[in-house]
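Might I ask for a little of your time on a matter of protein folding? Here, with my thanks, is the record as I have it:
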Amino acid sequence: MALIISDDCINCDVCEPECPNGAISQGEDIYVINPSLCTECVGHHDKPQCMEVCPVDCIDKDPDVVEDKDSLYKKYLKLTS
C-alpha cells in the first residue's frame, strides 16, 4: 500500500524532507503523498520514514492503494533506475 496523510496533519514540515522518493508535497490544506512515488521506503529503509518522524501520527496505509512488499520493491527499482 501507499501511504496517506489524514486531516490531522499540522503542516509541521518534518515528513517532506524524509521521503527518499519525493512522494510528499504540500497540498492545498495539508501535506499529501503521491501514491505513484510512495514505496513506503522499501528499498531505502526498514520503516516508512515519514511515519517515524510524524509528531501527530497522521500517516497511515492508504486502503485505496493496495500494494504488497514485492510491488513496492519493483516500484522502487523503477524509480531509482
